[in-house]
Amino acid sequence: MAKESTFKNMTITLLTITLLSSASLGIVYSLTEEPINEAKNAKVNDAVSKVLPEFDNMPTSQKFEREVDGGKITFYPATKGGKPVGTAIQTFTKNGFGGQIDLMVGFLPNSTIHAIEVIEHKETPGLGDKMERGKSKFSVQFQGKNPSEFKLSVRKDGGNVDAITASTISSRAYCEAVQRAYDAFITEGDIK
Amino acid sequence: MNQLTNFTKGFVKENPVFVLLLGMCPTLGTTTSAINGLGMGLATTFVLVMGNVVISLVKNIIPAKVRIPSYIVIIASFVTMVDLSMEGFLPALHAQLGLFIPLIVVNCIVLGRAEAFASKNTVAASFVDGLGMGLGFAFALTLLGAAREILGSGKVFGMVLFPDKYAMLIFVLAPGAFIALGYLTAVMNRLAKKSK
Amino acid sequence: MEYVLIIISAVFVNNIVLAQFLGICPFLGVSNKIETALGMGGAVTFVMTIAAIVTYLIMYFVLIPLNIGYMQTVAYILIIAALVQMVEIILKKVSPSLYQALGVFLPLITTNCAILGVAILLVQKEFNLLESVVFAISNAIGFALALVIFAGIRESLDLVDLPKGMKGAPIALVTAGILALAFMGFAGIV
Q1: C175 with B27: CB under 8 angstroms?
Q2: In the beta sheet, which residues pair with residue A65?
Q3: Which chains touch A (3 or more CB pairs under 8 A)?
Q4: Residue B161 domain-assigned (yes or no)
Q5: Number of structural domains chain B divides into
Q6: Which residues of C fall below an 8 Å CB-CB distance to B?
Q7: Quick one: three-class SS letters along B36-90?
């Protein structure tokens, strides 16, 4: 039969259980910390190689960050044979329809956009999620464009970008993130 | 009841989703595809089995008044283990299931079985009960996930069955989840009645 | 402006029940009558708001500084369970009739995924304390709204002739789906 519910018994039981719980979770946490970090890195590495031309360095080991607009912009410089081939910039926007969107924008040294990859988003399937590369031509229209001439806002707002049908908010947020990346790229100047 | 009945009751007679109407939130929220439903079902099964076993083991040491908080901590610990493990070893599935993984702790099935069964039965029986209920849950979720995936995108388990321009997108969205589950429940219950 | 966006988004566009699938069990279980729906909505608003504040404080002032963020699930659910106990005790004293009406559903607020869900979400969305409170109250209002509308529909559904297999849960679910469809229309506002 269950133990008597005296105050002492109850407190000891709860304390023991909580301690055992924290201890076992601590162990599981330390066991999974490595795999979790590796999984996160793999995602980033994958995105970097998708948005830049061929490189032979390790952009993630040369990355640096800047605090911009209350968030983090991360620069991943890529070189081939010692010469810079471009910089992948991890950018964000908090104004997506479903919340934060993280993009990886690949810039060539002359600030032309090589390609853009979506790292994470919470947009609506069938609508905003068309920003993903395989799902529509939306992200393709940025390739080879230079933001110094190509206005990074949707046509509705006077820009050059064709928005995703019925997903103006997602499209606007995407443009905002790309603009943020471009501004950071220009501010940073010459990336060695 | 013998262990075979104990195991199979979770599939049809006492199916947590179609009959007991428990665990509705993850049922609707993670069944955008068959794989997601299956993944969620198996994660929940793990928590159910481990939770049932541990609770059955300690049922005599825990004072009655702190039963529920103790069970909750035990269940929450296993949920966190599943959460961390999936984040490290199955990151894509973890990202798809998102918020619903930690929500396994409030899945009425888990606490319900702990309270109704594990706290009063042997470890072996609790193990079987947890496994049966969990797999029955996984079965329901995979079924609904497959139905929604096929109707909504023309695929099942990622394999294309027909081009998605013939699919009805609504089924992978919120309203479709409710509607699909409603009709599926009606069908399943009809089948259950017939087989009696 | 930001706050208006949070409110409209939480109540209508990303309605906690009809779009995020949280709080379905009480949604299907307590929505037979409009009065019980209102009572449940009120209780959930109270618990959700306080839970949001307490879990926020614990997360940012205890768990993260001590580097035990992974204890979030355990800590949060314990806090919520304790809060619901408190509400039960208070309700018994202050309004015994409401306490009776809610019956077994009151302790079930603990397992209401909406409460735990909102607590986790506001950390994910990186809201500050005030934004979190607004977010919590708005979601609770959205929950109550969905519940009350649904209760109204269900009261009429009871009087309708249905095929036997569809009675009860199936027709309730299909109706909820149509309601969710209606709420999808709000997506254009923000």
Answers
A1: no
A2: A74
A3: B, C
A4: no
A5: 1
A6: 18-25, 28, 70-74, 77-78, 81-82, 108, 110-113, 116-117, 120-121, 124, 165-166, 169-174, 176-178, 180-181, 184
A7: HHHHHHHHHHHHHHHHHHHHHHHCCCCCHHHHHHHHHHHHHHHHHHHHHHHHHHC
CB neighbourhood size of B140 (10 A) = 26
CA distance B178 to B176: 5
Q: Please answer yes or no on whether A97 and C187 come within 8 Å at the CB atom.
A: yes
Q: What are phi and psi of A88, to 5 degrees?
A: -95, 130
Cα angle: C27, vertex C30, C32; to 5 degrees: 105
pLDDT tens for each residue of A12-36: 888 888 888 888 888 998 888 888 8
Q: Is residue B196 part of a domain?
A: no
Cross-chain Cβ contact C176/B178 below 8 Å: yes
Structure tokens at C22: 């949280």
Long-range (24+ apart) CB contacts under 8 A made by B115-123 are B115/B67, B115/B68, B115/B71, B117/B52, B118/B51, B118/B52, B118/B53, B118/B55, B118/B56, B118/B59, B119/B55, B119/B56, B119/B59, B119/B67, B119/B71, B120/B59, B121/B56, B122/B56, B123/B53, B123/B56, B123/B57
Q: C47 near C109, Cβ under 8 Å? A: yes
Model's pTM, two decimal places? 0.81
Could you read off the pLDDT of B15-50 as tens digits, one per residue?
888 888 888 888 888 888 899 999 999 999 999 999
Please judge whether C190 and A99 are an interchain contact, meaning their C-beta atoms are less than 8 angstroms apart: no
Chain B residues near residue A24 by CB distance under 8 angstroms: 77, 81
Q: Which domain holds residue B15?
A: 3-138
Residue with token string 């599943």: B82
Residue B150 included in any domain: no
The per-residue pLDDT for range C12-52, each reduced to its tens digit, is 888 888 888 888 877 877 667 787 788 888 888 888 998 99
pLDDT along chain A (192 residues), means of 10: 70 85 89 87 86 86 86 89 89 83 91 90 78 85 90 88 85 92 83 46
